[in-house]
Design brief:
The chain is an alpha/beta fold. It has 18 helices and 15 strands.
Length: 517
């Protein structure tokens, strides 16, 4: 089986896809990953032994220079990214069986169009549930297009979000599709997402309501990493009691970075602990040369976090999951995007604290840290640790291999068996044109929306449904079935997930790490 992965974004978007690529290669698949040309991503893929194809502009300069909330230059960036899918990604995907895509909408709409043009299968993946249209949560908002605060009905908001996406990206997509003989797409968001998106998030940390729209919940995708900690880090850890980690990953902080680092270190010292400060893309550093602080570059969090007293971080899905797997309490200082969601989940599970506001003061951060350092919080974190899964990438690799791989055996790429009849018209246009019929399907999992699939290789019993389903929500003009089909009254499980969702106190500011949408 030949798979091409298209991933554009900061590290939280790229690294999980590396994890999937590694697991696919273990099963004998040929995989290449189309990713931003940043040096750290190129090195990450090279270390994993995965062939890479540079696509688009480097992400780090975008993330660290684009003004939060500003739409300046957005149209051109989106057009360039979409064109890159029709260019470099299409070239990489030629001869492949499956295209797996994640990232902002210009990337995923372009990627699915490429799959449609080549007649290969397509999978949309998100690592956070907040982007998925569902009646229990509002949309997160789009750059430069705030949602009206007076509208409280989530279905109405998701319909508005779809119209905004069409307005922002529909014209560019239509022109690019026309250039390769494809018809227009109505509802570009749902076309990219399909009606069965794959949710690569841990089902305990991020439960999806069973009554919600259909998703394929695989669990979080973790990249295998057996690197030892640097000697300086090991020496610091061995020199005293477990320290507290401070890091904001790929999130830019601008001129606030020195003050935030200073406030965090002061709060940690007030609680009687030492500090490890991770530079990240914000360029954080210890505020002085005290021997109770250590500034580090990128290290393996899975090796470091179990040796810590607590983790103070921005609240990305990756860092939240890694900390939860380590059984270490967390203090999340969310900056935007889906980070408030993960902060709420950590609070709801009792494994940490959500700090109120993006810029902490030493006193209030010290109080939050005191709660995280309580024995009860540590005990709860240890309990949850045993429930967080590590086999999400293996689950996803198996689903891809057992479906697309099985259909490939004995069949030519152009002559493979067609998708079920419900796939007809997936291209969200007339549904009857020859170019629309060239699309061969969307991979999904049968069964309930919240039914978690476990990896048989991890010795978890139970049959696995065939993941090939043929529908896509863009199938009929104006269709919004992903939202409208959910029942008005949620079950207990749905209510629990809704309580943990952003709710109507939505975050209208896109993630600082997303310089596109």
């Amino acid at each position: 089986m030949r798979v091409v992965v298209s991933a554009y974004g900061a590290r939280g978007s790229v690294e999980p896809m590396v994890g999937l690529a590694v697991r696919l290669r273990e099963r004998g698949a040929e995989v290449r990953v189309c990713a931003p040309p940043d040096e750290e991503f190129t090195e990450l893929l090279a270390e994993a032994g995965v062939p890479s194809v540079p696509v688009g502009a480097p992400v780090r300069p975008l993330v660290t220079t684009v003004k939060p909330g500003s739409a300046e230059g957005l149209a051109q960036r989106a057009a360039d990214l979409m064109a890159a899918q029709f260019g470099a990604v299409a070239d990489a995907a030629d001869g492949c069986d499956v295209l797996v895509a994640t990232g902002p909408l210009p990337v995923t709409t372009g990627a699915r169009s490429v799959a449609e043009r080549l007649g290969i299968r397509y999978v949309y993946v998100t690592h956070t549930p907040v982007v998925l249209p569902a009646p229990h949560q509002p949309p997160p908002g789009r750059r430069g297009r705030p949602l009206p605060p007076e509208v409280r009905d989530n279905r109405e908001l998701w319909d508005l979000d779809a119209r905004l996406a069409d307005d922002m990206f529909g014209g560019t997509l239509e022109a690019l599709r026309a250039s390769v003989g494809l018809p227009p797409v109505r509802n570009v968001r749902d076309y990219a997402f399909t009606d069965r998106p794959w949710l690569a998030a841990d089902p305990v940390l991020s439960p999806w309501p069973p009554s919600g729209p259909a998703v394929v919940p695989t669990g979080a995708w973790l990249r295998p990493d057996d690197r030892p900690l640097p000697p300086a880090v090991v020496a610091f850890l061995d020199a005293g009691a477990p320290p507290v980690y401070v890091g904001f990953g790929s999130t830019p902080l601008g001129t606030r970075a020195p003050d935030l680092a200073r406030a965090a270190v002061e709060a940690i010292r007030e609680r009687g602990h030492r500090a490890i400060v991770s530079r990240g893309w914000a360029g954080l550093a210890a505020p002085d040369d005290g021997d109770d602080c250590l500034t580090v570059d990128e290290v393996d969090h899975r090796a470091l976090f179990p040796r810590l007293a607590a983790v103070v971080h921005h609240g990305s899905g990756g860092t939240t999951t890694t900390a939860a797997r380590a059984g270490v309490p967390q203090v999340i200082v969310a900056q935007g995007g889906d980070q408030p969601y993960w902060a709420d989940r950590v609070t709801a599970l009792g494994i940490g604290v959500a700090y109120d506001g993006p810029t902490p003061a030493p006193g209030s951060l010290s109080a939050a840290l005191a709660t995280a350092l309580r024995p009860a919080t540590r005990a709860r974190a240890e309990t949850v640790r045993g429930t967080v899964r590590s086999d999400g990438a293996s689950v996803a690799a198996r689903l891809l291999y057992e479906t697309a791989g099985r259909r490939r055996r004995g069949l030519g790429r152009r002559d493979r068996d067609p998708m079920p009849s419900s796939a007809a018209g997936d291209s969200a246009s007339s549904g009857t044109s020859s170019s629309a019929r060239r699309h061969r399907g969307v991979l999904g999992v049968g069964g309930g929306a919240g039914e978690f699939v476990r990896d048989r290789d991890a010795h978890t019993p139970g049959p696995v449904a065939d993941p090939v389903q043929g529908r896509a929500t863009g199938g009929r003009p104006g269709q919004r079935s992903a939202v409208g089909s959910a029942p008005q009254s949620a079950s207990r499980a749905a209510k629990a997930a809704s309580a943990a969702s952003p709710g109507n106190s939505r975050t209208t500011e896109p993630s600082p790490g997303d310089a596109i949408t």
